[in-house]
Design brief:
The complex is a heterotetramer, with two copies of chain A and two copies of chain C. Chain A is of the alpha/beta class. Helix content of chain A is about 45%, strand content about 10%. In chain A, β4 and β5 form a beta hairpin. In chain A, α2 crosses α3 and α8 packs parallel to α9. Chain A is globular, with a radius of gyration of 22 Å. By secondary structure, chain C is of the alpha/beta class. Chain C has 13 helices and 14 strands. In chain C, the strands form three sheets. Chain C has a seven-stranded mixed beta sheet with strand order 3-2-4-5-7-6-12, with helices on both faces. A five-stranded mixed beta sheet of chain C has the order 9-11-10-13-14, with helices on both faces. In chain C, α8 crosses α12 and α9 packs across α10. Classes of the chains: A alpha/beta, C alpha/beta. Chains in contact: A-B, A-C, A-D, B-C, B-D, C-D. Chains A and D meet through α7, α8 and α9 of A and α3, α4 and α5 of D. The complex binds thiamine diphosphate (2 copies) and magnesium ion (MG) (2 copies). One thiamine diphosphate (TPP) sits at the interface of chains A and C.
Chain lengths: ~375, ~375, ~350, ~350
Amino acid sequence: MSVKSLRQTVQGLLPSLTPVRFVAEDGTPVAKPPAGYREPSVQALREAYRRMVLGRRFDTQATALTKQGRLAVYPSSRGQEACQIGAVLALRPDDWLFPTYRDSVALVTRGIDPVEVLTLLRGDWHCGYDPAATRVAPQCTPLATQVLHATGMAEAQRRKGEDGVAMALTGDGATSEGDFHEALNFAAVLRAPVVFFVQNNKYAISVPLARQTAAPALAYKGIGYGVRSEQVDGNDLVAVLAVLTDAVAHARAGHGPVLVEAHTYRMDAHTNADDATRYRDAEEVERWGTADPLSRLEAHLRARGALTDADAAAAREEAEALAADLRTRMNADTTADPMELFDHVYAEPTPQLLEQRAQLAAELAETALTQED
Amino acid sequence: MSVKSLRQTVQGLLPSLTPVRFVAEDGTPVAKPPAGYREPSVQALREAYRRMVLGRRFDTQATALTKQGRLAVYPSSRGQEACQIGAVLALRPDDWLFPTYRDSVALVTRGIDPVEVLTLLRGDWHCGYDPAATRVAPQCTPLATQVLHATGMAEAQRRKGEDGVAMALTGDGATSEGDFHEALNFAAVLRAPVVFFVQNNKYAISVPLARQTAAPALAYKGIGYGVRSEQVDGNDLVAVLAVLTDAVAHARAGHGPVLVEAHTYRMDAHTNADDATRYRDAEEVERWGTADPLSRLEAHLRARGALTDADAAAAREEAEALAADLRTRMNADTTADPMELFDHVYAEPTPQLLEQRAQLAAELAETALTQED
Amino acid sequence: MAETTQATKVTMAQALNTALRDALREDDRVLVFGEDVGPLGGVFRITDGLTRDFGEERCFDTPLAEAGIVGLAVGMAMGGFRPVVEMQFDAFAYPAFEQIASHVAKLRNRTRGRLTLPMVIRIPYAGGIGGVEHHCDSSEAYYAHTPGLKVVTPATAEDAYWLLRDAIADPDPVVFLEPKKLYWSREDTDLERRGALPFGRAAVRREGRDATVVAYGPSVPVALAAAEAAAAEGIELEVVDLRTIVPFDDETVTASVRRTGRCLVVQEAQGFAGVGAEIAARVQERCFHSLAAPVLRVAGFDIPYPPPKLEHAHLPGVDRILDAVDRLQFGDEPDTRHLLKGAVA
Amino acid sequence: MAETTQATKVTMAQALNTALRDALREDDRVLVFGEDVGPLGGVFRITDGLTRDFGEERCFDTPLAEAGIVGLAVGMAMGGFRPVVEMQFDAFAYPAFEQIASHVAKLRNRTRGRLTLPMVIRIPYAGGIGGVEHHCDSSEAYYAHTPGLKVVTPATAEDAYWLLRDAIADPDPVVFLEPKKLYWSREDTDLERRGALPFGRAAVRREGRDATVVAYGPSVPVALAAAEAAAAEGIELEVVDLRTIVPFDDETVTASVRRTGRCLVVQEAQGFAGVGAEIAARVQERCFHSLAAPVLRVAGFDIPYPPPKLEHAHLPGVDRILDAVDRLQFGDEPDTRHLLKGAVA
Ligand SMILES: Cc1ncc(C[n+]2csc(CCOP(=O)(O)OP(=O)(O)O)c2C)c(N)n1
Ligand SMILES: Cc1ncc(C[n+]2csc(CCOP(=O)(O)OP(=O)(O)O)c2C)c(N)n1
Ligand SMILES: [Mg+2]
Ligand SMILES: [Mg+2]
């Protein structure tokens, strides 16, 4: 390869020097719109706005449910809604999504019943929805492990001659795990149609980005695998949607995987059980409050005359209905059936499990008897 | 950070577009000497030449010993001597080296008794030399795992206020492992004084580079960690020594880790037990034969009048003596003591091991008795 | 020395924190690192205040990668330090499994003792706290089956303190398993006075003539509660707390079973090929002619750890232990459960 | 169907290769991938010729990363394929341990059966071939202790063929452990006619009235050789080959021990908390009143796998098995080894 074309290859893989941004924090369009990306339609932005209002409400409601003891724990994505909604809106229904524990809002946006989304955190079962039907993998806890699954799924689609894409969501901290590395490398070598979407919310629980990486940006990891990369303002829904739509199209067209890093911020603590005051100060959180993705999009749409007071009120109303429904249904007590513990370990239980199943049945019968006494 | 300084940061982390090279394949200096590197002294190059002659001879002798059944297996580094010798000569004796199974020539160059180097492959024990005394970690088999150990050792040196450096050797294939990724990231965040030296010999056993990575070069992995990177012609001892000397100095000065990729070639099969004809053709091997690092350095030194026939003959003679000594000593039968199996598992054997030790002692006594009969 | 003076109520979490503090204070080579162990003090607050009091150089956060943490510790131990690393939860130690099995356990042996790894891998483990999947694995068997590791799990605050001190002082790598559900259990103890047994010795937590219950870590309080209940029915159970799984204290266990003639083993982990299997196997090997009944095991089922609402059904509790006691053939009747195949399945 | 017709000498390696071929031919969803399995045919040549004969799309080399290989297989299985992946050697599967323990074993359960993982992880394992460190680990206990996995290890070429076919056809993930040292052992068999028992059943390889020897994988031929030697001295050993460790065939094992009244368990792996412990524990639980002596274990020592020149001292051989037979108390004398503490240490 000539030095010139080498230089072009390298430039083609590196992200833009600063995050792609369409809309400034106050909602006004940036002076120079980023080259190479198509701005989403007003229609799409209005829909995104509605989804963000719903997502935000779902999130605050879920946090409230932890206080009422209805959820053991909830990892909020407040502040990250541009990413949560942008990711889902960039996908087709037949594409696959591989989310983490923090991506509940994305799942609700995808159309999964909010109660099923919360089954895991309610403690009823490990995954409450049907991943096969929704094309959403179970929310993944072991960090970065699902990035490989997404790569495998993308590769499976490619081999079956389908044009589905897989999108893997991760946080900034998860990029440090070996599995993240292996996934990007496998995807690049196989040219699997997968989009790696890193929500860099600046913290991995308490550990700040500077202790996680010394890279100029996480998006610079792409070139080491020959993976096209981009970084985007993660609180600018317009930019997130534009960049992810482009990335998905790239992957779908058979040009291989894409890595996108979104710069965003986790407004709440890691989960309701976490105490964020131990590792970050209020000013920082406040500063990011002014970058709120929802009010930014709202201001933007209003300035463009694409959103009326009535529209906003309608979205709020829909959100309140969602929250009310969620409250009602989450306040209903559920019971889990202990005998189900043996049902899904294998397609057919082993003889050992049958014995243990009988043992538990006997134990439960005995307890029932004792309680009758 | 301004866009301009961002651009500078990025440029400072990327490797040069083409591998650094001082000497062309025919031994003549390249037209434009690479900027930013100091050419090693003639003295150093003469010494390197001598070591390469010795190393090459050791390597062919070891391969021969496998045919005589004196070694179970031997992974040759023939063709990679510029890397093997360059790496060791770039280090001080108080620096640490973390080699792989393929780096026996580097160990011999470091001054370890060749017989002790081969203890592992002779089957007597897992490591034949004293890693603490030689500051050479055991030759590592589980790929890329030692890269983390090197990082830890470098960090230990830094914390003790010593200015020692650690150098980790790996192959191209090993860069795909998660541990490689984690090591570069940890080193960058900690600013540990470690040099990652990848000998890209184009194959991981049978798997060619193109199936290992889609990156423009492995050296492009550095920027994703904020690690300064370089690529070098791995068959040009002058370039390897210049680049590694610079990298070691960078690390020693406290500027953090460096990643260096050397483009070289494994002339022999993966090991003597491997059949390379199954996955590569003779022409390719032949082509690389013309890039031989030893004859290249010899031609270069001769052209500069820095090497006489007598010098070359002396080196060859020394090498023959080394080979003869190695043959003699390797042809002596060794026995290993089964009771040693229990000696090093813990500082003090557990009661369980004491019982098992007694059991083995009894078994051996019985066998001895039976054989006396 | 410990900070607390005289017998006061301490939790296991406090005892562990104190042990780390005392070790950091007494030995410059001791370092604490891992995910969130710095300013946050760890998700369980075991390292609370260590960065504040000993500085970043002694207790620090690492990037998020467990093989990285363990691999770094290996290198630092080779370089003269005594790292004490934390894996955030049991299942999150698995990414480090290769480093642990292929290096931590083997480096001393590989180098004939020329390189040693005085390091501790702390792992909050096991269940009973309503944690979601991956946060409740009982992983002790993986480590206990790996020669070259020592495997420890305390059941009391006092043991937590002393076993951790011993582990940090040990010349060899120790996997230190902390039963999460006991972190907040309180007990009266004076950490300045060593009451704990030496490393490697099991403790007889309760004496009894009728049967020996061998337990460790999270199962010890359950075994003791069962013994209490059994006593009410006239059966005296002796409860042995292993404290260290490797090395294993055959002497104490064997002596007890030879005396009682019956033995039960309790573990939270799934039973198949677990540590309880080892205990049962070695007890019957060594005490066969003293046994009036088979050594029985009480364990979790051979299933992935259940969701929070079902963990009570999985974990061995007092009732499951008492059921097993009933099958120890005190009435001299052989257990026929396994003969009635059809009935069981 | 198998390529060979009629009974011919086949090696286990050939049987495995044929099984892969037949599976690839019969089911489009079957894929083979891993390190060096393509043009090279694997370092043990088990995948020899598959890329040539079935194309790159069906058998291909991956980048060098085991978690990557297993994680990719998980995704591809979710996407409808039936991956058969190779880990190059036992210890090189450890980097994939998190993927195996936290996902492969649990995905069906996590999703209530909505996602399943019909995949096979092939691992050449155990020793006896003079391999250097990390190439000879007996890692079966790690997998057998992990609920959700099936764990298989053949001891004959015929079983290698059929168990691998069954494993590939299985709706659940199977860890398929191939005893390296048996790859080149030859036997007469006709792979086109199923002689092998069903998946999950143990085989009685030799009948005998005096004691039952339970073995699996690499230890089966050793147990048979020991039985041969014992027979010469008038002791008839029954040899049971487990074939599948999970599921475990209690029925066959229990029936045999109830008949013979004595039991020995043989495994190559280090003994502590190994599969042999599980077998001993369950046999004494189920057959206590039939046992004339404790169930004894014959195993490797609790040490890292030794260097080639010393592996003979570590591996259980015929002599070690016969020593254990001697301790099965045929003379009605209890074993006093463990009572003579001082003498032992
Ligand atoms: C392998 C593994 N190690 C540790 C954890 C514990 N843990 C859960 S979330 C978390 C931080 C993740 O940070 P990041 O990737 O930035 O995602 P975020 O939570 O910020 O969305 C940690 C350490 C885990 N889940 N998996
Ligand atoms: C974790 C791990 N996986 C697999 C292997 C088996 N193996 C030994 S060498 C090798 C190829 C390594 O290739 P590369 O890193 O390029 O080094 P080279 O042998 O070419 O010097 C493989 C796959 C191993 N040693 N460790
Ligand atoms: Mg984060
Ligand atoms: Mg290579």
